[in-house]
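Students often ask why we bother encoding 3D structure as a string. The short answer is that it lets us treat folding as translation between two languages. Here is a chain of 277 residues written in the first language.
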Amino acid sequence: MTDPGRSADHDPGRSRGPDLELRAVRGMGEIRPGDDLPAIVADALAPLAPQDGDIVVVTSKVVSKAEGRIRPAAEREQAITEESVRLVASRAHPGGITRIVEHRTGLVLAAAGVDASNTDDGTILLLPVDSDASARAIAERLRSRFGAAIGVVVSDTLGRAWRVGQTDVAIGAAGVRVLEPVGTDANGRPLLVTAPAIADEIAGAAELVAGKADGVPVVLVRGLGRHVTDLDEPGARRLVRPPGDDMFRLGSDEAYRAGREAGRIDALAEAGAQHAG
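And here it is in the second language, the structure alphabet:
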């Protein structure tokens, strides 16, 4: 997949963006608990001759499988509860109740990321324990094996507030600049809040190559070497919005109930104060 960019004739004075190549990595086979995933990924990548500046996107499904994050499907609701630290919103529907929760890693997503796709019948997969650490382990192995500065992104599929559909985002990263503040626009005007979520954009692009039904858990991204860093760069956890900056901490129904309860408590307190007076 190559982005030819705009020609100089069409867009004079603008610098041409980099060519971008994304290649599906095949031949890994089914991943089982206890498998040495970094070694398996390295073996599958070897025919593509990884080089400095490459970024490898690994779906969280295979990370979860290798780490044994598998439960019986009958325990789905219990698993969601155990993986959650806060209920953000819930909606009843004919098939049950959908819960949007804050995962213990800070991610806000449906069903705490518990998923029954691309796993054996009768089982579910939980998110990795620490996706940044998982990405780092893979990156360390790849850098050692190929003698090249290679970044790693662990991806998962999330829905978006205000938008229909899902896209892949980065839930783990190592050796990749996940966020890139931009100082000015093309005309030199200051950009005070613009900061492209580079790792999310890479994960979304890789999903176009991997697909949900094609059984491709790894994608090699070439052409973004400027975003590859040392392994001490902050991981994808940096992309989780701090609670103090979150303007939408609750779903609308939950916020309404909380406000009504707060009003009731205030009214009781005021009545008590008037009675005491």
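Translate back mentally: The first helix runs from residue 37 to 45. Keep this in mind for the problem set.
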